[in-house]
Amino acid sequence: MPVYSADDLENAIADVKNGVSLKTAAKKNGLPPSTLRGRLTGAQSRQVARQEQLRLTTDQEDDLERWILRQEKLGHAPTHAQVRTIVRSVLARHGDHAPLGRKWTTRFVERHPALKTKLGRRTDWERVNAATPANIKRLFDVYETVDWIPPERRYNATRAAL
Question: Are 43 and 50 a contacting pair, CB within 8 Å?
């Protein structure tokens, strides 16, 4: 499948309007003649044509993408189920109560390359069970003996948190 940009397509259309044959303009700009012919007769790109089929607007999808990336940076990347819940609530606010398709989240991720599905790592149960008040107290007792870290460099480590 040939790879071409919107600029290549615009240049090919301009060439045809300036008298260059359709085949020559398509070959010169690296796009299929059928694509150029379709655009000259008023066909839309696949992305534009399918825009009406999308449940969220482009702006809503962009906002959702930014929110997901922000949550990921904060260390709380949402699950597919959480994303679906948020989307359902946005759609419900706009009067759309139809269920989302089974693969909606997967296709949303495919439409937004900045997002990737990542496998979460479970916290080891031994580590979770070891976070007891006694162990945390012991940690702070050891921490106070460390004199090579100046107090102004010790972040979020106070006994008041206990």
Answer: no
* Cα-to-chain-centroid distance, residue 151: 40
Q: Supply 69's token pair.
A: 């990336």
- Is residue 63 within 8 Å of 71, Cβ to Cβ? no
Return the closest-CA partner of residue 110 out of 49, 35, 47, 59. 47
pLDDT in tens, 20-62: 998 999 899 889 898 889 888 888 777 666 666 678 888 999 9
Which one, of 71, 18, 9, lies nearest residue 36 by Cα? Answer: 9
Residue showing tokens 């989240």: 105
Q: Where are the alpha helices (DSSP H) in the chain?
A: 6-17, 22-29, 33-40, 46-49, 58-73, 80-93, 104-111, 125-129, 133-144
Give me the half-sphere count of Cα atoms (radius 13 Å) on the Cβ side of residue 158.
Answer: 6
Q: What is the DSSP letter of 146?
A: -
Is 94 in contact with 60 (CB distance < 8 Å)?
Answer: no
> In whole angstroms, what separates CA 91 from the centre of its chain?
19
Separation between Cα atoms, residue 126 and residue 87, nearest integer Å: 36
Q: Measure the CA angle with vertex 132, ends 129 and 138; round to 5°.
A: 125
